[in-house]
Amino acid sequence: MKFTLLKKNDMIKELLEAVEAKRAVNKSTIKAEFARALVGKTLKAFGPNGKGLYGTNPKEVGYKVKKIECDYYSNDDKFASINVYLDDYDARGRDKDGNIDSDGGLIYTDKVFIANLNKALKAAKVNYKSASYSEYGMQGKNFVNLDVSV
Domain of 48? Predict the structure, then answer.
């Protein structure tokens, strides 16, 4: 009797794990998961380890995530395009008053930002395979665009 009960519990556990693995993934759930993990968090960029091609600052700069948008999701390819909107971020390299600021610019290709973003997603146990910068032309004035594999 005890052996049968243990076997049934194992079967139930496996079934629940299979259901969780096949949970519905769509544009809304991707956006919700990324928002849960990132909105309100401060992500650092730049600094001596940033080494991005388009933005510079000798000091790390923290940007608070204000919202997440999912522009595109393909269930067939398990791929999403995510925009991460940041407070006080201007990819054109301007400060809050619109003056040109040589310390800043486009986060695209910055190693510090993408590492911090992935660390925050993993800490929040977001179900995704990878998140990386999309192409240059997809980056926005006040957001960073990412390619996400789920």
Answer: 25-149
